[in-house]
Amino acid sequence: MPKAPEHILLSRTDSIGDVMLTLPLAGLLKQLFPGTCMTFLGRSYTAPVLRCCAHVDQVITLEELEAQGDAVAVRTLRELNAQVVVHVFPQRQVAGWCKKAGIHTRIGTSHRWWHWTTCDKRVAFSRRKSELHEAQLNVKLLAPLGITDIPDLPTLAELSGFTAPVADERVRGLVQPGVRNIILHPLSKGSAVEWGLDHFAALIEHLDPAHHRVIVTGTAAEAERYRKELPLHLPHVSDAGGSLDLTQLIALIGACDALVAASTGPLHIAAACGIRAVGLYSPKRPIHPGRWAPIGTDAHVLVADGLDPDGDPMAHIRAISPDAVLRLLQW
After folding, report:
1. Cα–Cα distance for residue pair 13/20, rounded to 1 Å
2. Run of H or E including 93
């Protein structure tokens, strides 16, 4: 690049956890190119996450571009006047739009064939085989901009720029003063290997009601599942399943003390908020914590000892005992 770009477009149109681990990339670019405008292209359901990031100046969604039709989508992207687009998540349609929009520098992985026709800068690396964390792998895409040093995870965590919104009345009503408020997010909509509702039930029963408030979260569909198996009748338990939108969930996470989940978006949000984030993981590649651990000042991962890393991920995560989680909640 002959000079610092005035406007950069980051495109990542996948899930909340993936987007959370891309926010440090925006922070790093802002640090290296002060004054650069940062637009983030994501999914509509991840937009509330993006609006919590100080480094993101503008959010556009894949859904709104698709609704406009190809010609208007291309015009919308052209009118951004972005000099650079980084395709953090390969999306063929977006790559085609960006080329037609005339964005000067279009960066993508060399491992997607359509990037050979839509991107003028292609970076060759394998995410699946790498020893790097997902947040670090994202940085490798910046090599065409002259950025080749990969920051360590504590540095990237500091660059997230993430702040939870102020809690509204509904959220404030879930948080109990004078005790440790702990969110349990037991299900994952199939995005991660799950610990099991029986383990979460045992954990709830072992948390001292005199010192802990348990708030169970999930979608309405997930709540229908967990309500059949979790001891939600206990006096120290609140059920928030299906009652919060994403902005409210983020606010709740920021207002609590800890969160326990598998490798899900709420876990990564908790880590970025600086509360105790306890992640439950299998050691099997490519879903292992070396790639997907939450990053933050109080982030922790649990992996059962002594298991074959090439074995069954469900057996791996089921081998984590409720007592091991309980110990991390008694700091």
Report:
1. 12
2. helix 92-100
**In tens digits, what is the pLDDT along the chain, a chain of 331 residues?**
457 899 999 999 999 999 999 999 999 999 999 999 999 999 999 999 999 999 999 999 999 999 999 999 999 999 999 999 999 999 999 999 999 999 999 999 999 999 999 999 999 988 888 899 999 999 999 999 999 999 999 999 999 999 999 999 999 999 999 999 999 999 998 889 999 999 999 999 999 999 999 999 999 999 999 999 999 999 999 999 999 999 999 999 999 999 999 999 999 999 999 999 999 999 999 999 999 999 999 999 999 998 899 999 999 999 999 999 999 999 8
DSSP per-residue letters across 179-232 = SEEEEEE---TTSS----HHHHHHHHHHS-TTTEEEEE---HHHHHHHTTTS-T
pTM given for the model:
0.97
The token pair that represents 150 in the structure block: 């990969």
Taking domain 169-328, whether its CATH number is 3.40.50.2300 is answered by no
- 7-158 under CATH 3.40.50.2000, yes or no: yes
Query: Which residues belong to CATH 3.40.50.2000 in the chain?
Result: 7-158, 169-328
